[in-house]
Specification:
It is elongated and about 75 Å long. It is mainly α and 337 residues long. Among the domains are: 108 residues, Tetratricopeptide repeat domain (Serine Threonine Protein Phosphatase 5, Tetratricopeptide repeat); 89 residues, Serine Threonine Protein Phosphatase 5, Tetratricopeptide repeat, CATH 1.25.40.10.
């Protein structure tokens, strides 16, 4: 979940996440879609360096610790570009993205035509949060290999995460034209159309992604979010439940399931699901807030106050002043009632 507008850079870890806020009488909805998911790292030591057999390393969901002194990364002067590429992949496996960036750049310096090095460098930059550099690296990879489908998908995902769906859409469509079975490209394209407020095309592309990858809990979850924006809450509930079936620790799915059940009037079950969300994400401010709303509706005044206090604390940690203040208003309302 990749902030909470998750696009998919073909790394297949990041997702889309929504949050639903509500007051005891003024339930509103705020959908926060997650970031894109990037793809796997490429190795030049296979026959088809861009095929499914190149999955030798994946980025972690949480950014690894940066080195305090980047000069600690030693670039062996006698290694070839291909050997440096493998060394960079080893840094990735160790969780050292900053080190990987240094090594991939060294590989490119030795061989400016090494497509896989630009591609891997783009992934590393994306994980480090440098989207501008990631976009440049993916662009270089696609120029060197105009048929590199996953690089186009990652380029589109990086552009989408940078807030440029208009730039992203042509690259994602290019990725699909090169590889019609690339599920992650359909996923990212769905998110791009969501940003353009074209919900029907967003759902159509997510459905195609799901058809190619039926066990993708994040795609099912995201479809639930989009379907809920169309007002079909029972169908959205079914999607959230299916996502949880596939990923029993999916905090965001529990949260949105609980919020949707609350809207449907199933208050006791909503509390169960909101507590599940908090179990798997201890600082889930939105879940605490919605739990407070739900408890207040059932007349559980003291429990609701405690939930709003928790929500306020976590909103303050997140520097979300508006919702911290809203939590405080709920506390004061319950105490004076």
């Amino acid at each position: 979940m990749i902030a909470n507008f998750l696009l998919k850079f073909s790394l297949l870890n990041l997702t889309l996440s929504a949050v639903i806020f509500g007051g005891s009488t003024d339930v509103t909805t705020k959908f926060d879609f997650m970031k894109p998911v990037f793809g796997i790292f490429a190795s030049v030591l296979v026959v088809s360096i861009y095929g499914s057999d190149i999955a030798i390393a994946q980025l972690r969901q949480k950014p690894p610790q940066k080195l305090q002194v980047q000069q600690q990364i030693v670039v062996p002067p006698n290694e070839t570009a291909n050997q440096l590429l493998e060394r960079g992949n080893a840094y990735v496996r160790l969780g050292n993205v900053e080190g990987a960036i240094v090594i991939f750049r060294a590989a490119i310096k030795k061989n400016p035509e090494l497509t896989a090095a630009y591609y891997n460098l783009g992934l590393a930059y994306a994980q480090a949060g440098n989207l501008k550099a990631a976009i440049h690296s993916f662009q270089r990879a696609t120029r060197l290999d105009p048929k590199f489908a996953i690089a186009y998908s990652n380029l589109g995902a990086a552009q989408l995460q940078s807030g440029n769906p208009d730039q992203a859409i042509p690259n994602l469509q290019k990725a699909i034209s090169l590889d019609p079975n690339l599920a992650v490209a359909y996923y990212n394209l769905g998110l791009a159309f969501k940003e353009k407020k074209d919900i029907n095309r967003a759902i159509a592309n997510l459905n195609q992604s799901l058809k190619l990858n039926p066990q993708a809990s994040e795609t099912i979850y995201n479809l639930g979010l989009l379907i809920q924006t169309q007002g079909d809450i029972p169908k959205a509930i079914a999607y959230y439940s299916k996502a949880i079936q596939l990923n029993p620790e999916y905090a965001e799915a529990y949260y949105n399931l609980g919020a949707a059940l609350f809207i449907q009037g199933q208050t006791e079950e909503a509390i169960t699901q909101l507590n599940n969300a908090i179990q798997f994400r201890k600082d889930y401010a939105e879940a605490f807030y919605t739990l407070g709303v739900t408890q207040a509706k059932l007349g559980k005044k003291q429990e609701a106050i405690q939930s709003f206090i928790q929500a306020q604390a976590y909103f303050n940690q997140q520097k979300n002043v508006a919702w911290a203040q809203q939590s405080d208003r709920q506390i004061q309302k319950l105490r004076s009632g």
